[in-house]
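> call design_seq(struct)
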């Protein structure tokens, strides 16, 4: 169910849930970048560089960032941020559509910040140029992720206490959790409505 044609058809029929911002709401967007790998697709993740004051410092994520006044819309913000962060031009990529908006909750604190995921397909091996905000780019096969065989739990400190977080352990060893993990699950449900999420540990 996770080849390019099936994903394109499913997202063309998908009706995402968009949150309505208020005057104080900040808006951001991320790009879910799919790359052909035979008949199936894999998706690209970035590992954010360690940065003081960044609530997502060092975490696995999709390329993206805040919407600027020069961006026509949130999709344009995702395209611009991807170009800036990893040097990948999505203006010529195939656009598959938007997913449900997510609300940012770094370290358990709910922010008045909307995250808009947008899905793109690239067919060739990209030539990347990482900026100072990105430490690495890694990929993982979608069927392997959707099959939940990579589901794992990692214990990390939260408010001074060790806390277990559900996520996906990529073949590279990187752990995808939090906002990016939620976006991935939203993506799988949009593509395959009868998809069964992994059994999570509370």
């Amino acid at each position: 169910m996770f080849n390019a044609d099936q994903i394109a058809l499913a997202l063309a029929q998908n009706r995402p849930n968009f949150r309505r911002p208020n005057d104080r709401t900040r808006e951001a967007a991320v790009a879910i970048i799919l790359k052909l790998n035979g008949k199936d697709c894999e998706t690209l993740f970035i590992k954010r560089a360690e940065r003081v004051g960044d609530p997502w410092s060092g975490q696995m994520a999709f390329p993206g960032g805040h919407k600027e006044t020069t961006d026509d819309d949130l999709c344009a913000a995702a395209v611009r941020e991807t170009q800036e962060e990893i040097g990948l031009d999505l203006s010529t990529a195939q656009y598959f559509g938007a997913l449900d908006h997510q609300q940012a909750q770094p370290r358990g604190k709910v922010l008045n910040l909307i995250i808009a995921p947008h899905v793109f397909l690239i067919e060739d091996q990209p030539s990347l140029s990482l900026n100072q905000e990105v430490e690495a780019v890694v990929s993982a096969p979608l069927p392997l992720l959707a099959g939940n065989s990579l589901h794992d739990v990692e214990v990390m400190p939260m408010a001074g206490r060790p806390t277990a977080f559900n996520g996906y352990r990529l073949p590279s060893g990187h752990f995808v959790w939090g906002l990016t993990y939620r976006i991935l699950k939203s993506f799988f449900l949009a593509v395959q409505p009868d998809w069964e999420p992994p059994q999570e540990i509370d």
